Fold:
Amino acid sequence: MQQNLTSYRIFYAAANAKNISKAAKELYISQPAISKSIQKLEDSLGCKLFERSSRGITLTEEGKLLYSYVKQAFETLSLGEEKLQQSMELGIGHLKIGVSSTLCKYLLLPYLKAFMNRCPHISISIACQSSNETLKLLEENKIDIGLVGKPQNLKLIQFDSFEEIEDIFVASDSCLKNIKTHGMTNEQILTNSTLMLLDKQNMTRQYIDNYLQTNHIIVQESIDVSNMDLLIEFAKIGLGTACVIRSFVKEELKNKSLTELPLKRPIPKREVGFVYRKNKNLPKSLEQFICFCAEYKH
Structure:
Protein backbone atom coordinates (compact mmCIF):
# COMPACT_ATOMS: atom_id res chain seq x y z
CA MET A 1 0.00 0.00 0.00
CA GLN A 2 1.53 3.28 -1.13
CA GLN A 3 -0.29 5.54 1.36
CA ASN A 4 -0.80 5.23 5.09
CA LEU A 5 -4.20 4.44 6.57
CA THR A 6 -4.79 8.06 7.68
CA SER A 7 -4.77 9.28 4.06
CA TYR A 8 -7.46 6.78 3.14
CA ARG A 9 -9.47 7.59 6.27
CA ILE A 10 -9.52 11.28 5.22
CA PHE A 11 -10.42 10.34 1.63
CA TYR A 12 -13.24 8.08 2.88
CA ALA A 13 -14.66 10.73 5.23
CA ALA A 14 -14.54 13.43 2.53
CA ALA A 15 -16.23 11.17 -0.02
CA ASN A 16 -19.02 10.34 2.44
CA ALA A 17 -19.51 13.94 3.58
CA LYS A 18 -19.20 15.38 0.03
CA ASN A 19 -17.87 18.48 1.74
CA ILE A 20 -14.40 19.38 3.06
CA SER A 21 -15.80 21.40 5.96
CA LYS A 22 -18.08 18.56 7.16
CA ALA A 23 -15.26 16.02 6.86
CA ALA A 24 -12.98 18.30 8.93
CA LYS A 25 -15.59 18.49 11.70
CA GLU A 26 -16.08 14.70 11.72
CA LEU A 27 -12.35 14.04 11.93
CA TYR A 28 -11.55 16.96 14.27
CA ILE A 29 -8.84 18.33 11.98
CA SER A 30 -8.58 21.55 9.99
CA GLN A 31 -9.94 22.06 6.47
CA PRO A 32 -6.48 22.88 5.08
CA ALA A 33 -5.18 19.58 6.52
CA ILE A 34 -7.99 17.72 4.74
CA SER A 35 -7.30 19.46 1.44
CA LYS A 36 -3.55 18.89 1.75
CA SER A 37 -4.00 15.17 2.47
CA ILE A 38 -6.34 14.70 -0.51
CA GLN A 39 -3.97 16.60 -2.80
CA LYS A 40 -1.06 14.45 -1.61
CA LEU A 41 -3.08 11.27 -2.25
CA GLU A 42 -4.01 12.45 -5.76
CA ASP A 43 -0.41 13.31 -6.55
CA SER A 44 0.77 9.93 -5.29
CA LEU A 45 -1.81 7.98 -7.29
CA GLY A 46 -1.42 10.18 -10.39
CA CYS A 47 -5.10 10.94 -10.84
CA LYS A 48 -7.81 13.34 -9.73
CA LEU A 49 -10.14 11.86 -7.09
CA PHE A 50 -12.58 14.75 -6.55
CA GLU A 51 -14.27 17.47 -8.57
CA ARG A 52 -14.51 20.70 -6.56
CA SER A 53 -17.40 23.17 -6.81
CA SER A 54 -19.04 25.86 -4.69
CA ARG A 55 -21.52 23.24 -3.44
CA GLY A 56 -18.85 20.78 -2.30
CA ILE A 57 -16.94 17.87 -3.77
CA THR A 58 -17.93 14.85 -5.86
CA LEU A 59 -15.96 11.76 -6.78
CA THR A 60 -14.44 11.43 -10.24
CA GLU A 61 -14.65 8.07 -12.04
CA GLU A 62 -11.19 7.21 -10.65
CA GLY A 63 -12.34 8.36 -7.22
CA LYS A 64 -15.43 6.13 -7.38
CA LEU A 65 -13.27 3.12 -8.22
CA LEU A 66 -10.92 3.76 -5.30
CA TYR A 67 -13.86 4.53 -2.99
CA SER A 68 -15.49 1.13 -3.64
CA TYR A 69 -12.41 -0.64 -2.27
CA VAL A 70 -11.74 1.80 0.56
CA LYS A 71 -15.37 1.53 1.69
CA GLN A 72 -15.13 -2.27 1.79
CA ALA A 73 -11.85 -2.07 3.75
CA PHE A 74 -13.23 0.27 6.41
CA GLU A 75 -16.46 -1.70 6.74
CA THR A 76 -14.36 -4.84 7.30
CA LEU A 77 -12.33 -3.02 9.96
CA SER A 78 -15.55 -1.87 11.67
CA LEU A 79 -16.90 -5.41 11.61
CA GLY A 80 -13.64 -6.68 13.14
CA GLU A 81 -13.90 -4.12 15.95
CA GLU A 82 -17.53 -5.12 16.54
CA LYS A 83 -16.70 -8.83 16.70
CA LEU A 84 -13.80 -8.12 19.04
CA GLN A 85 -16.10 -6.17 21.36
CA GLN A 86 -18.61 -9.02 21.34
CA SER A 87 -15.82 -11.44 22.13
CA MET A 88 -14.78 -9.38 25.13
CA GLU A 89 -18.34 -8.91 26.38
CA LEU A 90 -19.71 -12.40 25.77
CA GLY A 91 -16.59 -14.49 26.09
CA ILE A 92 -16.66 -15.61 22.47
CA GLY A 93 -13.80 -17.99 21.97
CA HIS A 94 -12.59 -21.46 21.19
CA LEU A 95 -12.44 -24.06 23.94
CA LYS A 96 -10.20 -27.10 23.44
CA ILE A 97 -11.09 -30.09 25.64
CA GLY A 98 -9.10 -33.30 26.07
CA VAL A 99 -10.88 -36.45 27.22
CA SER A 100 -10.86 -40.20 26.66
CA SER A 101 -13.61 -41.56 24.40
CA THR A 102 -15.12 -43.42 27.38
CA LEU A 103 -15.30 -40.41 29.72
CA CYS A 104 -16.52 -38.28 26.83
CA LYS A 105 -19.43 -40.59 26.08
CA TYR A 106 -20.54 -41.39 29.63
CA LEU A 107 -19.68 -38.22 31.58
CA LEU A 108 -18.89 -35.20 29.40
CA LEU A 109 -21.55 -35.29 26.68
CA PRO A 110 -24.54 -34.25 28.85
CA TYR A 111 -22.54 -31.26 30.14
CA LEU A 112 -21.39 -30.30 26.65
CA LYS A 113 -24.91 -30.28 25.27
CA ALA A 114 -26.20 -28.05 28.07
CA PHE A 115 -23.16 -25.75 27.89
CA MET A 116 -23.49 -25.26 24.13
CA ASN A 117 -27.17 -24.39 24.56
CA ARG A 118 -26.23 -21.71 27.08
CA CYS A 119 -23.08 -20.44 25.32
CA PRO A 120 -23.57 -20.97 21.56
CA HIS A 121 -20.98 -18.24 20.87
CA ILE A 122 -18.15 -20.50 22.13
CA SER A 123 -16.82 -23.04 19.64
CA ILE A 124 -15.55 -26.33 21.06
CA SER A 125 -13.09 -28.92 19.80
CA ILE A 126 -12.56 -32.31 21.44
CA ALA A 127 -9.29 -34.24 21.47
CA CYS A 128 -10.15 -37.87 22.31
CA GLN A 129 -7.05 -39.40 23.87
CA SER A 130 -6.25 -41.50 26.91
CA SER A 131 -6.06 -39.64 30.23
CA ASN A 132 -2.26 -39.84 30.16
CA GLU A 133 -2.21 -38.34 26.66
CA THR A 134 -4.67 -35.66 27.77
CA LEU A 135 -2.31 -34.62 30.57
CA LYS A 136 0.53 -34.45 28.06
CA LEU A 137 -1.52 -32.24 25.71
CA LEU A 138 -2.33 -29.95 28.64
CA GLU A 139 1.34 -29.72 29.56
CA GLU A 140 2.18 -28.82 25.94
CA ASN A 141 -0.53 -26.12 25.96
CA LYS A 142 -2.43 -27.86 23.14
CA ILE A 143 -5.71 -28.04 25.07
CA ASP A 144 -7.38 -25.72 27.60
CA ILE A 145 -8.90 -28.31 29.91
CA GLY A 146 -9.07 -32.09 30.28
CA LEU A 147 -11.37 -34.60 31.97
CA VAL A 148 -9.22 -37.33 33.59
CA GLY A 149 -8.79 -39.58 36.57
CA LYS A 150 -7.13 -37.68 39.42
CA PRO A 151 -3.40 -37.44 38.65
CA GLN A 152 -0.79 -38.11 41.33
CA ASN A 153 1.15 -34.93 40.55
CA LEU A 154 -0.91 -31.74 40.89
CA LYS A 155 2.02 -29.35 41.18
CA LEU A 156 1.35 -27.32 38.03
CA ILE A 157 -2.32 -28.10 37.40
CA GLN A 158 -5.64 -27.44 39.07
CA PHE A 159 -7.90 -30.47 39.62
CA ASP A 160 -11.65 -29.91 40.14
CA SER A 161 -13.30 -33.11 41.27
CA PHE A 162 -16.21 -34.03 39.01
CA GLU A 163 -17.43 -37.46 40.00
CA GLU A 164 -16.42 -40.52 42.00
CA ILE A 165 -16.27 -43.72 39.99
CA GLU A 166 -15.99 -47.38 40.96
CA ASP A 167 -14.29 -50.11 38.94
CA ILE A 168 -15.84 -53.58 38.99
CA PHE A 169 -15.37 -56.92 37.23
CA VAL A 170 -18.28 -58.25 35.18
CA ALA A 171 -19.02 -61.25 33.01
CA SER A 172 -21.98 -62.83 31.22
CA ASP A 173 -23.96 -65.60 32.91
CA SER A 174 -22.79 -68.09 30.28
CA CYS A 175 -19.16 -67.20 30.93
CA LEU A 176 -19.59 -67.55 34.71
CA LYS A 177 -21.40 -70.89 34.39
CA ASN A 178 -18.63 -72.23 32.19
CA ILE A 179 -15.97 -71.22 34.73
CA LYS A 180 -17.90 -72.58 37.71
CA THR A 181 -18.36 -75.97 36.05
CA HIS A 182 -14.66 -76.40 36.70
CA GLY A 183 -15.28 -76.00 40.43
CA MET A 184 -13.94 -72.47 40.73
CA THR A 185 -14.88 -70.30 43.71
CA ASN A 186 -15.64 -66.57 43.31
CA GLU A 187 -12.12 -65.73 44.50
CA GLN A 188 -10.60 -68.00 41.84
CA ILE A 189 -12.57 -66.62 38.89
CA LEU A 190 -10.29 -63.64 38.25
CA THR A 191 -7.21 -65.82 38.26
CA ASN A 192 -8.65 -68.52 36.04
CA SER A 193 -10.78 -66.62 33.54
CA THR A 194 -9.68 -64.58 30.54
CA LEU A 195 -9.38 -61.07 31.93
CA MET A 196 -10.21 -58.22 29.55
CA LEU A 197 -8.59 -54.89 30.42
CA LEU A 198 -7.89 -51.55 28.82
CA ASP A 199 -4.46 -51.28 27.19
CA LYS A 200 -1.40 -50.61 29.33
CA GLN A 201 -1.08 -46.92 28.34
CA ASN A 202 -4.44 -46.20 29.94
CA MET A 203 -4.59 -44.63 33.42
CA THR A 204 -7.46 -46.96 34.40
CA ARG A 205 -5.39 -49.99 33.42
CA GLN A 206 -2.50 -48.79 35.55
CA TYR A 207 -4.88 -48.36 38.49
CA ILE A 208 -6.28 -51.88 38.05
CA ASP A 209 -2.82 -53.42 37.61
CA ASN A 210 -1.87 -51.86 40.94
CA TYR A 211 -5.00 -53.35 42.56
CA LEU A 212 -4.23 -56.82 41.17
CA GLN A 213 -0.63 -56.66 42.30
CA THR A 214 -1.53 -55.38 45.79
CA ASN A 215 -4.03 -58.20 46.25
CA HIS A 216 -1.70 -60.86 44.79
CA ILE A 217 -4.08 -61.71 41.98
CA ILE A 218 -2.11 -63.36 39.18
CA VAL A 219 -3.75 -63.13 35.76
CA GLN A 220 -3.26 -66.23 33.62
CA GLU A 221 -4.84 -64.99 30.38
CA SER A 222 -5.68 -61.42 29.37
CA ILE A 223 -6.91 -59.43 26.40
CA ASP A 224 -5.98 -55.77 25.97
CA VAL A 225 -8.78 -53.64 24.53
CA SER A 226 -8.58 -50.05 23.30
CA ASN A 227 -11.79 -48.69 24.87
CA MET A 228 -14.41 -49.52 27.47
CA ASP A 229 -17.32 -49.80 25.04
CA LEU A 230 -15.57 -52.79 23.45
CA LEU A 231 -14.83 -54.27 26.87
CA ILE A 232 -18.53 -54.15 27.70
CA GLU A 233 -19.57 -55.68 24.39
CA PHE A 234 -16.93 -58.45 24.59
CA ALA A 235 -18.08 -59.29 28.11
CA LYS A 236 -21.73 -59.48 26.99
CA ILE A 237 -20.93 -62.10 24.34
CA GLY A 238 -18.97 -64.19 26.85
CA LEU A 239 -15.36 -63.67 25.73
CA GLY A 240 -14.18 -63.27 29.31
CA THR A 241 -14.31 -61.19 32.47
CA ALA A 242 -14.04 -57.42 31.93
CA CYS A 243 -13.04 -54.61 34.25
CA VAL A 244 -15.46 -51.72 33.72
CA ILE A 245 -16.84 -48.71 35.58
CA ARG A 246 -20.03 -49.51 37.49
CA SER A 247 -22.01 -46.43 36.41
CA PHE A 248 -21.29 -47.23 32.75
CA VAL A 249 -22.97 -50.65 32.91
CA LYS A 250 -26.05 -49.82 35.00
CA GLU A 251 -28.44 -51.02 32.30
CA GLU A 252 -26.50 -54.24 31.66
CA LEU A 253 -26.48 -55.06 35.40
CA LYS A 254 -30.19 -54.25 35.61
CA ASN A 255 -31.22 -56.43 32.65
CA LYS A 256 -28.73 -59.12 33.73
CA SER A 257 -26.82 -59.22 30.46
CA LEU A 258 -23.81 -58.76 32.75
CA THR A 259 -23.20 -59.91 36.33
CA GLU A 260 -20.85 -58.30 38.80
CA LEU A 261 -18.22 -60.56 40.32
CA PRO A 262 -18.08 -60.35 44.12
CA LEU A 263 -14.60 -59.38 45.30
CA LYS A 264 -13.03 -60.18 48.63
CA ARG A 265 -11.53 -56.67 48.61
CA PRO A 266 -13.51 -54.21 46.45
CA ILE A 267 -11.51 -51.92 44.20
CA PRO A 268 -11.21 -48.53 45.95
CA LYS A 269 -13.28 -45.78 44.35
CA ARG A 270 -11.42 -42.99 42.57
CA GLU A 271 -12.02 -39.44 41.48
CA VAL A 272 -12.50 -38.10 37.98
CA GLY A 273 -12.29 -34.38 37.39
CA PHE A 274 -11.31 -31.45 35.22
CA VAL A 275 -7.67 -30.42 35.00
CA TYR A 276 -6.36 -27.10 33.71
CA ARG A 277 -3.23 -25.02 34.12
CA LYS A 278 -2.86 -22.92 37.24
CA ASN A 279 -3.15 -19.43 35.82
CA LYS A 280 -4.71 -16.31 37.25
CA ASN A 281 -5.68 -15.09 33.76
CA LEU A 282 -7.73 -17.97 32.34
CA PRO A 283 -9.41 -17.44 28.94
CA LYS A 284 -12.96 -16.20 29.42
CA SER A 285 -14.41 -19.20 27.54
CA LEU A 286 -12.60 -21.56 29.95
CA GLU A 287 -13.80 -19.59 32.98
CA GLN A 288 -17.38 -19.86 31.73
CA PHE A 289 -17.06 -23.60 31.18
CA ILE A 290 -15.58 -24.22 34.65
CA CYS A 291 -18.29 -22.14 36.33
CA PHE A 292 -21.00 -23.81 34.28
CA CYS A 293 -19.85 -27.35 35.18
CA ALA A 294 -19.71 -26.49 38.90
CA GLU A 295 -23.20 -25.00 38.69
CA TYR A 296 -24.66 -27.78 36.51
CA LYS A 297 -23.27 -30.45 38.79
CA HIS A 298 -25.24 -29.09 41.74
